């Protein structure tokens, strides 16, 4: 299957021009991976801020990162961290941001062109939320899990992995090369310590289910447009994630011992 070659700056001479309103509208209508590039730009920009803060103001860096990381024990008290944690990466560590962005660029543009911008964005966000839900579920089985902080785009990325498996399987494309790339990512927690594999599993499950619903789903909804199915299934998946988080939080030790929050 042939894919259109994508150049980051095909018509414009500068980074600023790429993100101009006129250029973005053109690329949006042209089917270019606008969402993928925007996510990458935000992640890199946030990482640069983190790195600079770590160099010139370490205390400020800790406060900046600490305010955005996801921790199961504090998740319902700091609901914004479900989103902010997707855009944070280890400060001053080129490996973390580079590997995640490389992975995103390998799978994101293909999916965005196949699905369309908004369904792809819904997939990415729901997968990232699914990664946080995976952390919540793991906390039920590990007392230390409640106070484990996590951040990074990998939960969302694993949702993209699952989605591309579903889509490729549906249209009959050979997925062996993609399986190898996914296996490498799944083995990363064994090779590199302190990786939140629980978020990988959660993102993979949510992303796979959402993609399957869009591709196959309920027979009664197959006649609906992709945008309509994205909205309906997206709301359902979001409700499921919220239900998982609320149910898990009922066992949150912080509810019975508020002093634990002092050590977060």
UniProtKB/TrEMBL annotation:
SUPFAM superfamilies: Rhomboid-like. One of its GO terms (biological process) is proteolysis. Residues 78-215 form the Peptidase S54 rhomboid domain. It comes from the Bacteria. InterPro entries: Peptidase_S54_rhomboid_dom (IPR022764), Rhomboid-like_sf (IPR035952), Rhomboid_protease_S54 (IPR050925). GO terms for molecular function: peptidase activity. The chain crosses the membrane at residues 34-57, 94-111, 118-140, 146-167, 179-197, 203-221, 233-255. It is found in: Membrane. Belongs to the peptidase S54 family. This is Rhomboid protease AarA.
């Amino acid at each position: 299957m042939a894919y259109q070659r994508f150049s980051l700056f095909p018509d414009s001479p500068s980074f600023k021009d790429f993100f101009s309103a006129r250029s973005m509208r053109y690329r949006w209508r042209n089917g270019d991976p606008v969402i993928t590039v925007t996510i990458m730009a935000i992640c890199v920009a946030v990482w640069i801020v983190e790195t600079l803060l770590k160099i010139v103001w370490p205390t400020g860096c800790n406060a900046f990162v600490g305010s955005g990381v996801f921790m199961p024990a504090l998740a319902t008290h700091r609901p914004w961290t479900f989103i902010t944690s997707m855009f944070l990466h280890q400060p001053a560590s080129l490996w973390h941001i580079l590997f995640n962005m490389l992975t995103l660029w390998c799978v994101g543009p293909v999916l965005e062109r196949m699905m369309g911008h908004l369904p792809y964005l819904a997939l990415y966000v729901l997968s990232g939320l699914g990664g946080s839900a995976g952390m919540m579920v793991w906390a039920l089985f590990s007392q230390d899990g409640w106070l484990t902080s996590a951040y990074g785009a990998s939960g969302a990325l694993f949702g993209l992995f699952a989605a591309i498996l579903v889509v490729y399987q549906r249209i009959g494309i050979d997925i062996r090369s993609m399986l190898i790339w996914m296996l490498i990512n799944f083995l990363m927690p064994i090779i590199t310590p302190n990786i939140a594999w629980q978020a990988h599993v959660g993102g993979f499950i949510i992303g796979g289910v959402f993609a399957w619903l869009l591709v196959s789903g309920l027979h009664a909804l197959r006649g609906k447009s992709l945008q309509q199915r994205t909205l309906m299934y997206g709301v359902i998946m979001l409700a499921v994630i919220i239900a998982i988080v609320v149910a898990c939080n009922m066992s949150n030790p912080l509810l019975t011992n508020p002093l634990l929050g002092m050590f977060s």
